[in-house]
Amino acid sequence: MILTRWLALVALIGVVPLTAADTAPDATPRNPAPAAAKAKPKPVPGEAAVADALRTLKATYRADFARRKPEDHLAFAGHLLDLTPPASDGEAMRYAILHEACEQAAKAGDAEMIRRGITELAAAYTIDPVAERLRLLMQTREFVSLEAMQAVIASELEIAAQEIDGDDYALASKAAHAAEELARSGSDATALGNAKATYERSRFLGEEYAKLGELTDLLGNISDEGSSHLGAFQCFTKNDWSAGLAHLAAGSDEMLKALAAGELMLASSAAPAAEQQFALAERWWDLAQKQRGDPRDGILAHAYGWYRRSLDGVPPLVRSKAERRSEEIERLLATSIRHPLMHYPPGAAFLLSCERDTLIMQQDRLIGVLDISGHGVRGQAIGVKPVSGAFGGALAFDGHAHLDFGNPKNLQITGSLTIAMWINPTVLAERRNPLAKSYGGEGTLTLEPSGEINYYYGTGGSNAQPYSAYSMGVPLAAKTWTHIAVVRDLTSKHILWYRNGALASDNPAPYPSSAVSTLPLLIGSGYVENFIGELDEIGIWPRALSEGEIRQMVEATAAGRH
């Protein structure tokens, strides 16, 4: 097919093959389409018609198809996505343009351009967007920067996480394995650890899921027995209690059915009684005693969450029993290789795992978060949303959301301390506080527009001077998970920053101690703008962690970062 009218339009509006001056990628489409009702995707045109259209496209852009540099491919991909050929030129040409834009994005090794291309292609044609996106990511071999390669690895792990959530473990394993190979070729130890753990988890869950067999009948209905098996897998093995409890409550196992129904009713209550929470924890504890391996660990971790919820409201004798049970669960899970609960250095004053068992939900809304350090600190959640990863959960903040933990005495730390977390900022345009206590007291973290992250502490109290700032020295990248840890070692009088387990900066500490403030510990908020992005595995220790402890924590909690 010869696109005479389209080529005439090209000549009239000046859309010509790219020149060297056009190679900078455009961050936004030059010709954004107006808002309109979504059209239903059409079938992919026939191979012969697409091949004919592609030959015409290559003849028109001969010079651009001949270029070999990644930056040229990236610019060409963006250029193709900005083209809007007339409908009269046919669906084959439109499909060829979008498809070739995706191929050029893959040659450029640019994960975001691949995402954009696949999004536009899937909106127009009936393709499998996940499989196509993964295919393109897996064929990337050249990158304009190390960051571009890391973005491709992160995208592959993102697909793995999504497919684990959807129980497509074959595709999840394929994506994780691709991420593992790319991380190994790039000698990225942190990414390699993430990918290996995700791959192992997807393989393990896939094997366990396969054991469930056929769960539905010919009409697609799941039997009561099938509900019991699926619910047990989701809760006890996959640790997805929000999905699994409903299946258990509809299942054939009367004991599990009653337990799940009771929990669903209790969780929906605006103010559940502490005695009921404790009683529910005890019932899950009793069930765990009859299990082995991963099911036992999953049930114990779930019981742990209910024990921690009950602590403040039960009588002293019951509280003492709940504390003993919690300590016993911590001991039992200390050697668990699959459950993330115990992968942290000892002695934390404050610790958020962000796992589902530590989240207090009211229907579908997060209203509170439980600290698992053993100090019983609880946070009020305002607008914070739980999000899923390949290996557990995280918390998302939209610039208005935050967690408020008040000002408990165990967080009024004046000596050595360590603050650590996984952080994934999505916006870097303003100064933002991912964590704040006080600038002139115990300490605050401020993320700068440049991506630099600073730790402040001082002797002025609250947010008053005097205080000093200490930068990690290596900017954080947007839309990338990074583990950060700042160590205030007042014995050696140093402020140490670690990035992904490696020492990033070392500065002298001017103050022998910090002031005690009256301000609350806030996550996602503080003195400047609220944080936008995701946070996970947030901990505060009243001591200086060693480099080995920080590195072990990174390696143990790195899975599923995307």
Explain this structure:
The protein contains 17 helices and 18 strands. It has helices spanning 4-13, 47-60, 62-66, 70-82, 91-108, 111-124, 129-138, 146-165, 169-185, 189-210, 224-237, 241-249, 254-268, 274-288, 293-310, 316-333, 547-556; strands at residues 350-352, 359-362, 365-370, 378-382, 385-389, 392-398, 402-404, 417-425, 432-438, 443-447, 453-458, 467-471, 482-489, 494-499, 502-508, 522-523, 529-530, 532-541. The longest helix is centred in the middle third of the chain and has 22 residues, at 189-210. The model is unreliable at 1-36 and 337-341 (pLDDT under 50).
Task: Tell me briefly what this model is.
43% of the residues lie in helices and 18% in strands.
Notable features of this structure?
single chain; 562 residues; alpha+beta; Serine Threonine Protein Phosphatase 5, Tetratricopeptide repeat; Jelly Rolls; 10-stranded mixed β-sheet; 8-stranded antiparallel β-sheet; 17 helices; 43% helix
